[in-house]
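## tool: complex_structure
## caller: assistant
## args:
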Amino acid sequence: MNKIEYENYHDTSKAYDNTRISVGIEIFLGCFASTPRPLPEQKILDAGCGTGNYIQALKKKVGHLYGLELNEGMLAQAREKCQNENHIQLEQGSLLEPLPYHNDTFDGMMCNQVLHHLLAALNQENFEPVHKLIKEAQRVLRPQGVLVFNTSSHRQLYDGFWWADLIPNAVGRIAKRFPPIEILSSMLKEVGFRKVGIVVPVDAVLQGENYLEPMGPLKKDFRDGDSTWSLATDEELEQAFERVRTMNQEDSMVHYLETRENLRKNIGQTTFVFAYKL
Ligand SMILES: C[S@@+](CC[C@H](N)C(=O)[O-])C[C@H]1O[C@@H](n2cnc3c(N)ncnc32)[C@H](O)[C@@H]1O
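## result:
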């Protein structure tokens, strides 16, 4: 792992798809379709494509898809999913470096749940790596191309994921890595993007049908679906496990999940921020 990574994606990659699905595909299609070229003629970049779930979901609609991903394990999963697809091009590389593409290449660029991985623990104040990425996005997008970030607001981090209440200190640590939505919007405007918009799909759940598994936090594969868990100390983990065991034994888990779900249903887990290059 490099010094910025806090989640070991090499290990996580193998089970990643058991606990993570693509969300907001209709939002992406809407954004991409609002740029000048028809979807089948478009080139779209998935920055930090992970195991390729979003590319997979879009491959029948979009002309050419490009994925850039740092982690070999995640990339290997994406490659397996996309083999024999001539219109998909995957590459290993870091979003902390200049993007390996020419100016004015893409009609759209998406970046799903990656921004918080770009910030080192000691470099959280000015979100410089995110600012640099936005500038790079502006360079590689065609005029009127669209940039879409799928991220989470701080409120969503605390109340959009039921288990967040079990590990509040870890959520506090990860929240520092997430640029607040207002800061992200300001950065986009400052770099020169226009028509900044925000969409919150309140029904979308990143973990799909496994989300409400009452014993989930006791299983490593389940925890691997949310990197917040890797920022919990051993003691915080043990306390969380104990609460999960007790609530399951005392039959209070159903009520607990209901209470947590009532919060999530109002705010969702993800926020999509999009903006257009002039
Ligand atoms: C939460 S996962 C999201 C993966 C994928 N976008 C998805 O939503 O399914 C975060 C991804 O960001 C990648 N990542 C972290 N730092 C990166 C960097 N500097 N450059 C490119 N990818 C990076 C990780 O390897 C991981 O695959």
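## assistant note: The chain has a mean pLDDT of 94. The beta strands are 43-47, 64-69, 88-92, 106-112, 141-151, 194-199, 271-276. Handing back to user.
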